[in-house]
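Render this sequence as a predicted structure.
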Amino acid sequence: MNTTWEISVWGVRGSFPMADRRHMDYGGNTSCISVRSGEDMIVLDAGSGLIRLWNSLKTEKELHIFISHLHMDHICGLFGSPFLLDKDRIVHFYGPAGLRNALKAAVRPPYWPVSLKEGGAALRFHEAVSADAFFHKVGDVCVSAMNARHPGGGFLYRLDGAGKSLVYALDYEADGQETDLFIDFASGCDLLVWDAAYDAGAAHPGWGHSTLEDGIRIGRMAGVGRILMSHYSWEYDDERLHAMEERVREKKDVVFAREGMVFEI
């Protein structure tokens, strides 16, 4: 069965949400992308963009949220989520070991008035001690993982099914021997969601992020179909991102993520 996947972009920033006029064209919310395959909704990270996704939902009763890692910019959309308050909803959380305890420790008083366990929705947690031990199936979509080169660790995700594939590689520093492993992991995927936190020459080694140029180089080596640039540094305003995008405009396989963007693979 060749089901179309609908990809929606809800958040594109890294580290901090940005809410000012200089960050409007691309968006200021932190990382969140959804993949709809048939009746199933897969959510990649729960940054502040998750709130926009919540507000778009209508009949969905069940969500599958894959958390790459537990840095606050990737989970802050869980605070105040109306979906979590609805007792008729089911939310599955997937991620590294310790996910359940970490989320329950973060979403609770005094940091937030309603704790995660008091929200009302039925919560299901699916943890793995390592990326090698991670494998889940959501409908017809198989989800596997690779360890991310990022402070504190985390998972990169690959979705395969219905004759298509997507690799989600945010908060990942492309460097050294792990790059060969990543090329194998992402090989031949239809869409690579890439950590384009920095422009060429502006990266910070050891911070766990990559560049626009890294994404193009590695994406080509892995033979991917399209590369979706995202996780822009909160310091990069529209003017700087426009300049970066213009520089690679002739590369038809490179797309810059914007909040509200919807497309199919």
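Summary. The chain has one domain: 5-259. Helices lie at 50-56, 99-106, 178-186, 212-222, 238-247.
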